[in-house]
Design brief:
- The complex is a heterodimer of chains A (116) and B (114).
- Chain A has 116 residues and is an all-beta fold.
- In chain A, 0% of the residues lie in helices and 47% in strands.
- Chain A has no helices and 11 strands.
- Chain A starts with a strand and ends with a strand.
- Chain B contains no helices and 11 strands.
- Chain B starts with a strand and ends with a strand.
- In chain B, 37% of the residues are buried.
- The chains are: A mainly beta (116), B mainly beta (114).
- At the A-B interface, strand 5 and strand 10 of A face strand 5 and strand 9 of B.
Chain lengths: 116, 114
């Protein structure tokens, strides 16, 4: 069964350092999502891509976070510089399309980030 | 704006007992509703979804949920809990009035006692 791949699974970094996460969605999925999940809370959408275009990045802290999906396939989320409050699980998800709200979003295993 | 409230951050049941996890939503448009399960240090897996067809929705692992518009609820149930059901459960809502964004509740941690 096809899965969403994410790496690394765990990342420990010092504050003010740069960190990057990678996501490879299920083949054929046009829509890709990055979520942040703070411990004890539900996931919150950071950015949504339709193919290579950003559809929604209203909750992305653009002063330090950036995301790209250059060829409309895999994606990278970067934080520079990292802050203590960025410690969280970063989840990537993909779906066939963003226009049909019944489409299931398939989640990857996530990257657990700890900022010290 | 759409929102989801999950009543009870922790629920504990005995193995074989009924599981009831509560979810109430707020939406000004017909919503799409979802329940996801998350095991420790893993991503989310879809249990079931309501998309305006049947109000009683059956999902994986013996779970089901009933959409009640009059109560704005979408509670998750399972007749008999198994140890393997211990996990975090999230209710979520989507609607076109917020760009189709998936809005999650705070989650309910389910513990199953032997």
């Amino acid at each position: 069964e096809a899965e969403v791949a994410q790496s690394p699974r765990y990342k420990i970094t010092e504050k003010s350092q740069a960190v990057a996460f990678w996501c490879d969605p299920i083949s054929g999925h046009a829509t890709l999502y990055w979520y942040r999940q703070i411990l004890g809370q539900g996931p919150e959408l950071l950015v949504q891509f339709q193919d290579e275009s950003v559809v929604d990045d209203s909750q992305l802290p653009k002063d330090r976070f950036s995301a790209e999906r250059l060829k409309g396939v895999d994606s990278t989320l970067k934080i520079q510089p990292a802050e203590l409050g960025d410690s969280a699980m970063y989840l990537c998800a993909s779906s066939l399309g963003g226009g049909d709200l019944s489409y299931e979003q398939y989640f990857g295993p996530g990257t657990r980030l700890t900022v010290t | 704006a759409q929102s989801v409230t999950q009543l009870g951050s922790h629920v504990s049941v005995s193995e074989g007992a009924l599981v009831l996890l509560r979810c109430n939503y707020s939406s000004s448009v017909p919503p799409y509703l979802f329940w996801y399960v998350q095991y420790p240090n893993q991503g989310l897996q879809l249990l079931l979804k309501y998309t305006s067809a049947a109000t009683l929705v059956k999902g994986i692992n013996g779970f089901e949920a009933e959409f009640k518009k009059s109560e704005t609820s979408f509670h998750l149930t399972k007749p008999s809990a198994h140890m393997r059901d211990a996990a975090e459960y999230f209710c979520a809502v989507r609607g076109y009035n917020q760009g189709g964004k998936l809005i999650f509740g705070q989650g309910t941690e389910l513990s199953v006692k032997p």
